[in-house]
């Protein structure tokens, strides 16, 4: 275990807190919709609308909460987001209709999405010389925690009673509160005074905005395995239904085992941008392979599917590692939270629009749709290196101007 865990101290405590939080989040992801259906007795249309509103609340909260963490201290602000998550989960246990469901689901969405932005200065401080690499480690921990939470949620789903679902959601609330307690044990991170520029400088940083948009477009790939592939397997191929679970198991295992290793090899802005390019090519290859599955018998289709999942997950690891490196290196030290909040907004938007877009193209259009989606990912990846070079030139020019102003 010592070779797997970070060194003793704040980094290890932050990793443990992330695992505790993600166990609860995994429970909510796996059991939430069923709880709203079978316990709160909401129709599917209202659940969909409420979760969409919750997603919008999460997108809107990232930048202001990140900026607040920059100014008021990341530890305390992050702990508050976790406590709000605990309140939201507890409130969902008491929800009895659409309005109360929307209120607490929106609070949960805002807390869950803004938390990483508030946590970013902690990663910058306690991540050592390579905070992006530590962020990759936390992503592996995140996937492990979500998988563990989903596995535990399977018990409540199998029992399928009001009590079992309430225990699951209340357990999620406890995990958020426990994580907040662990975070408050961390030493406080001193804020870095602003060095000039507008208050909402991230929103005026055009190269960073472009990179945020490109990362958001690439983030649609996170929905390929969870939205497009299951429908494609069931409707168009001879692959057995259990292969859907195999897809998620293979994906999670590869991310947990290899995300940190990939992040270690991506240590410069150029390497981060090139990782996007390689990720786009990997997504193109996997989409083409998945599109060909209907032409193969069941066992061969499963083998080809799992091969495509491996290629896709390698691309996912490159995409995540490249995003960590680019987003951290180009963010001013005094505005890490604000910049990470913006970058997270692009990621969240891509994940939100992904299912509808992928289902329309890959399922509605069929094989040409898969090819179009793969080409889209490849072109997006190719656009990142020149955008990163523009951002680097702009950052250097701004630093020189600021130095001249200080000298004057």
Structure description:
- The protein has helices spanning about 10-40, 45-70, 75-95, 100-125, 130-160, 160-185, 205-220, 225-235, 240-265, 270-290, 300-330, 335-365, 365-405.
- It is mainly α and about 400 residues long.
- Helix 4 (about 100-125) packs antiparallel against helix 5.
Characteristic terms for this protein:
Growth Hormone, Chain: A; globular; 13 helices; 82% helix
String of helices and strands: HHHHHHHHHHHHH
Number of strands: 0
* Structural class designation: mainly alpha
Mind telling me the CATH superfamily name of the largest domain?
MFS general substrate transporter like domains
Q: What separation lies between the terminal Cα atoms? A: 53 Å
Second rung of CATH, namely the architecture of the largest domain: Up-down Bundle
Helix content: over 70%
Overall structural domain count: 2
Choose one word for the global shape.
globular
Strands, helices and their partners?
Elements: H1 10-38, H2 44-72, H3 74-94, H4 98-126, H5 131-159, H6 162-185, H7 206-218, H8 224-236, H9 242-264, H10 269-291, H11 298-329, H12 336-363, H13 367-407
Helix pairs in contact: 1-4, 1-5, 1-6, 2-3, 2-4, 2-12, 3-4, 3-6, 4-5, 4-12, 5-6, 5-9, 5-11, 7-11, 7-12, 7-13, 8-9, 8-12, 9-11, 10-11, 10-13, 12-13
